[in-house]
């Protein structure tokens, strides 16, 4: 969804007037943290979970991570003239900045009290992180490099050794694939043993997982169908297609996969066959000349779990955590997190972050039009209102919705593009302009 | 909404009595003994009321409560309720059972529950819980009521969970005559697979994770056409009745014909087949059966070896081999005579005899007795009479009543006029907002099966925008 043209038109002259003022304006938030090393930082608390902070120093991206060990004190912005910080819930924010608590609890019932099974001191620590879930699975919206990157400090803090990405996604935005691959390959793999456990990885989701050397499937798992398209099933073609091929050749190399496999998933031009030699090594080729025809002509390849195992694309098939442990060759492992009814694996904070993130994105996605509608309506009503108290009420409501809009993009920057139709930088310019407009209305 | 008629008569009597009692101030009477566990209703303001739900409609919940020993019948607006838990509070004589079911469950207190979960059983007696999936797949047969029914089953820890699949597949679904069954060759419902995928985890992952004792999940197919065809494949134990069929999903090759580029169409087909094959693998079935059911170009035959089928991806070459599906090309295409008689073989519609031969079905059974015999529990079984089928029936009935109920609410909303003095205008707006919240609650309840747009009615976003407009109007109003 675009920023409504009426709003842009309405605000145009005001916005232009404000731009020159914007640079001179103080930072939009003035939270302050005092670190144990003596540093005093001002800026904005972007996110806070269990005492860990993501803090935008001097209100400049990217937000930096600080753990409870680093922080001495936190002073939150209490200036009542400024808009209250974004809170993820629909509750009215108070003038005093409040903690950005986890947005929602998962649908499962209350946590069980049984402790996580303890293992020997040397056992590696493993965590399951879900990438996508039913109806919340779009790559670039619910599965993002941004949300994955934020989880790394939390994982490191808990001494996690193994990260299992449980993938359940029908694909999404081409633009996010390289980012996801980079964060997994350049950042996750440096710190952890990284494993993909495929429930469904279609299109961009498969292209994301393709940089991971160690892939397992659930019995119902599927992986492939990576043809790029847009609009009314129009295929990506020409130079754009070659760029995607080139990108995936590199990503295939990251995962140690023959580039022909991904090509057969992308285009019907690539019939795929393979031979398995006496050593059990698989040799792939385009065409039908090898021992097994994996993908017939004029078809697009999607692996099921049996095919993936047969052709040694996957390292194994696992329905449960116990089966996965066995397939991964783990004689002992500690699955870190909180055991909860309804979940197959313990929920680690990093996983809770993904769940919270997706829940918030889902809420914002479904309500974004209402946020804009309310904001625009309140601005118009405020501008026409002579009585200051009422005008303040409309401005207050406008501000709340503006903060919800900003919070939506703070949480998931790609929403600026998918929902609003602008790049994130343009969005924040627009946001600052709206802040100024609201102040003007109140004068 | 359906109320057990026998119970209703009893409740009406009690209600009248309770009304009389409630009117006499200061008179304390012992509360009527409740033989069933109590229901609990939680309100938006945090209040929690425990009692016995007598009746539920799309907009109201009627309960019998006991206060200081005095019985009273009281009605609550659904728009004020955030959750309803059935049988979740122990009565004087029984143990508590389920957790919250939100607003989605029909909820009737079955005073005559025949099996208490707490009763210890002879381990040699195998308990069987039936869940009957009837109606239109994706609407009547949908994940919320199925999940609630399975949760009810969980209380009893049955040895067998028998899912009876008997979805509607007739012209009445599309406005024609209900007595006209849709022929096998009308195969346009492959994408209902994704609805099957919404339901599948209830019987697989959720049972595996949530149940202490794992039941054997059995599918008894009386009709599984369209997306319903995929669901039985998640189980390795399928029985078919003698007039049953599994199919109606043979249109993958034609999907998106004429739209966009062929390579993208092929991608769409490929990903769907990946999902479909996955469901078959989960139940231990051969994926080639799914291909034969869904892809016209796929040729499949079989022969029997040692009592087991051996599949061949080609036409039969001798009399010991039997054709399941050909490629439907030229002279091999099904003619009108075959199609009209459900004898076509361009795609596979599994009939009972073939189902048994190719290993999809264990046996053909037409009655519960035959099923128990097939399961080897003829002499040592007990059927549990839980509330699962009541829940499913209530969902169906509620869904059927939904368009009328939504229209009634809309009419009530429109009839409220905002006029008069400030106080009257404020009250009118509040009344309109309440109606919109009722509309939202009902629309959201059945949104997974039939959003309001299905009936040509405004959707939930419209209702939320209307609420906003009224709130802003109120803010702008003056005395």
Query: What is the total tally of β strands of chain A?
Result: 18
The helix fraction of chain B, in percent, is 25-40%
Taking pLDDT < 50 over at least 5 consecutive residues as the criterion, the unreliable ranges of chain A are 1-28, 79-116
Which outline of chain A best applies?
globular
Number of helices of chain A: 12
Low-confidence stretches of chain B: 1-35, 93-116
Rounded radius of gyration of chain B (Å): 27 Å
Would you report the number of β strands of chain B? Answer: 15
The H/E string of chain A reads HEEEEEEHEHEHEEEEHHEEEEHEHEHHHH
Q: C-alpha Rg of chain A, in Å? A: 25 Å
Average of per-residue pLDDT values of chain A: 83
Instruction: Report the largest inter-chain contact.
Output: A-B, 50 and 39 residues
The largest β sheet of chain B comes out as: 7 strands, parallel
> How would you classify the helix and strand content of chain A by structural class?
alpha/beta
Write structural notes for this entry.
The complex is a heterodimer of chains A (443) and B (479). Chain A has 443 residues and is α/β, with parallel strands linked by helices. Chain A has helices at residues 5-22, 145-157, 174-191, 204-209, 238-255, 259-266, 305-310, 321-327, 349-384, 388-411, 415-420, 424-442, and strands at residues 31-35, 40-49, 52-57, 64-66, 71-75, 125-131, 162-169, 193-202, 214-217, 222-224, 229-230, 234-235, 272-276, 282-286, 292-295, 302-304, 316-317, 334-335. In chain A, the strands form four sheets. In chain A, strands 6, 7, 8, 9, 10, 16, 17 and 18 form an eight-stranded mixed β-sheet that branches. A five-stranded antiparallel β-sheet of chain A has the order 4-3-2-1-5, covered by helices on one side. In chain A, strand 11 and strand 12 form a beta hairpin. In chain A, helix 2 (145-157) packs parallel to helix 3, helix 5 packs antiparallel against helix 6 and helix 9 (349-384) packs antiparallel against helix 10 (388-411). Chain A is globular, with a radius of gyration of 25 Å. Chain B is α/β, with parallel strands linked by helices. Helix content of chain B is 35%, strand content 20%. Chain B contains twelve helices and 15 strands. In chain B, strands 6, 7, 8, 9, 10, 14 and 15 form a seven-stranded parallel β-sheet that branches. Chain B has a five-stranded antiparallel β-sheet with strand order 4-3-2-1-5. A three-stranded antiparallel β-sheet of chain B has the order 12-11-13, with helices on one face. Chain B is globular. The chains are: A alpha/beta (443), B alpha/beta (479). Chains A and B meet through strand 10, strand 12, strand 16, helix 9 and helix 10 of A and helix 4, helix 5 and helix 12 of B.
């Amino acid at each position: 969804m675009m920023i409504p043209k009426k709003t842009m038109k309405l605000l145009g002259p005001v916005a232009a007037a404000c731009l020159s003022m914007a640079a001179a304006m103080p930072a939009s938030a003035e939270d302050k943290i005092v670190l144990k090393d003596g540093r005093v930082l001002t800026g904005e608390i972007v996110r806070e979970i269990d005492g860990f902070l993501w803090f935008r120093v001097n209100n400049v991206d990217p937000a930096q991570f600080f753990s409870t060990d680093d922080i001495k004190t936190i002073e939150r912005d209490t200036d009542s003239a400024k808009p209250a910080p974004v809170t993820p819930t629909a509750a009215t924010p108070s003038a005093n900045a409040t903690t950005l608590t986890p947005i929602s609890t998962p649908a499962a019932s209350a946590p069980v009290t049984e402790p996580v099974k303890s293992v020997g001191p040397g056992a590696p620590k493993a965590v399951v992180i879900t990438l996508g879930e039913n109806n919340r699975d779009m790559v670039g919206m619910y599965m993002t490099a941004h949300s994955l990157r934020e989880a790394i400090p939390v994982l490191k803090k808990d001494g996690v050794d193994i990260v299992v990405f449980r993938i359940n996604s029908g694909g999404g935005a081409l633009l996010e694939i390289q980012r996801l691959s980079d964060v997994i390959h350049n950042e996750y793999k440096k710190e952890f043993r990284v494993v993909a456990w495929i429930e469904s990885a279609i299109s961009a989701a498969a292209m994301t997982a393709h940089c991971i050397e160690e892939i397992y499937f659930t019995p119902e798992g599927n992986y492939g169908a990576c043809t790029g398209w847009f609009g009314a099933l129009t295929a990506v073609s020409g130079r754009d297609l070659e760029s995607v091929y080139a990108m995936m050749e590199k990503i295939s190399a990251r995962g140690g996969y023959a580039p022909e496999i991904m090509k057969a998933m992308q285009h019907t031009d690539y019939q795929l066959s393979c031979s398995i030699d006496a050593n059990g090594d698989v040799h792939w080729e385009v065409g039908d000349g090898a021992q097994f025809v994996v993908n017939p002509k004029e078809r697009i390849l999607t692996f099921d779990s049996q095919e993936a195992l047969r052709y040694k694309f996957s390292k194994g098939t696992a329905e449960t955590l116990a089966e996965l442990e066995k397939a991964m060759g783990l004689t002992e492992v500690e699955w870190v997190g909180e055991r909860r009814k309804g979940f197959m694996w313990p929920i680690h904070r990093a996983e809770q972050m993904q769940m919270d993130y997706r829940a918030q994105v889902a809420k914002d996605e479904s309500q974004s039009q209402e946020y804009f509608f309310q904001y625009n309506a309140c601005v118009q009503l405020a501008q026409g209102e002579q009585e200051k108290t009422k005008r303040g009420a409309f401005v207050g409501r406008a501000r709340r919705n503006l903060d919800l809009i900003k919070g939506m993009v703070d949480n998931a920057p790609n929403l600026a593009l998918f929902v609003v139709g602008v790049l994130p930088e343009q969005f924040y310019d627009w946001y600052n302009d709206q802040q100024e407009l609201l102040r003007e209305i109140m004068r | 909404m359906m109320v057990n008629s026998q119970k209703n008569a009893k409740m009406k009597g009690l209600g009248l009595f309770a009304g009389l009692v409630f009117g006499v101030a200061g008179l304390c009477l012992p509360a009527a003994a409740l033989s069933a566990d109590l229901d609990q209703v939680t309100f938006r303001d945090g209040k929690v009321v425990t009692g016995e739900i007598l009746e539920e409609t799309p907009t109201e919940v009627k309960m019998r409560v006991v206060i200081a020993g005095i019985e009273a019948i009281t009605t609550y607006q659904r728009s004020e309720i955030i959750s309803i838990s059935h049988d979740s509070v122990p009565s004087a004589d029984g143990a508590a059972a389920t957790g919250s079911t939100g607003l989605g469950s029909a909820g009737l207190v079955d005073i005559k529950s025949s099996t208490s979960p707490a009763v210890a059983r002879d381990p040699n007696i195998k308990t069987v819980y039936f869940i009957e999936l009837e109606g239109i797949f994706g609407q009547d047969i949908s994940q919320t009521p199925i999940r609630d029914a399975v949760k009810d089953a969980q209380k009893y820890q049955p040895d067998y969970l028998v899912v009876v699949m008997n979805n509607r597949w007739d012209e009445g679904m599309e406005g024609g005559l209900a007595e006209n069954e849709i022929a096998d060759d009308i195969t346009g419902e492959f994408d209902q697979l994704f609805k099957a995928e919404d339901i599948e985890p209830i019987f697989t992952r959720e049972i595996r994770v949530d149940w202490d004792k794992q039941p054997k999940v059995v599918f008894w197919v009386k009709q599984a056409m369209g997306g319903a065809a995929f669901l039985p494949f998640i189980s390795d134990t399928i029985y078919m009745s003698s007039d049953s069929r599994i199919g109606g999903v043979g249109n993958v090759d034609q999907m998106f014909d004429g739209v966009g580029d062929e390579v993208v169409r092929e991608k769409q087909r490929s990903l769907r087949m990946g999902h479909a094959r996955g469901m078959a693998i989960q139940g231990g079935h051969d994926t080639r059966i799914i291909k034969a059911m869904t892809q016209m170009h796929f040729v499949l035959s079989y022969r029997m070896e040692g009592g087991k089928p051996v599949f061949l991806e080609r036409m039969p070459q001798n009399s010991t081999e039997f054709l399941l599906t050909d490629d439907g090309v030229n002279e091999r295409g099904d003619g009108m005579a075959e199609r009209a008689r459900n004898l076509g073989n361009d795609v596979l519609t599994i009939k009972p005899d073939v189902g048994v031969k190719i290993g999809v079905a264990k046996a053909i059974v037409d009655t519960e007795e035959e099923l128990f015999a097939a399961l080897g529990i003829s002499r040592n079984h007990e059927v549990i009479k839980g509330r699962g089928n009541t829940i499913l029936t209530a969902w169906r009935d509620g869904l059927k009543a939904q368009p009328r109920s939504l229209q009634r609410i809309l009419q009530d909303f429109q009839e409220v006029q905002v006029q008069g003095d400030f106080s009257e205008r404020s009250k009118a707006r509040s009344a309109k907002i309440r109606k919109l919240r009722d509309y939202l609650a009902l629309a959201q309840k059945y949104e997974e099966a039939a959003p309001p747009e299905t009936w040509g009615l405004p959707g939930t976003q419209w209702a939320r925008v209307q609420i906003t407009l009224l709130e802003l109007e109120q803010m702008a109003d003056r005395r």
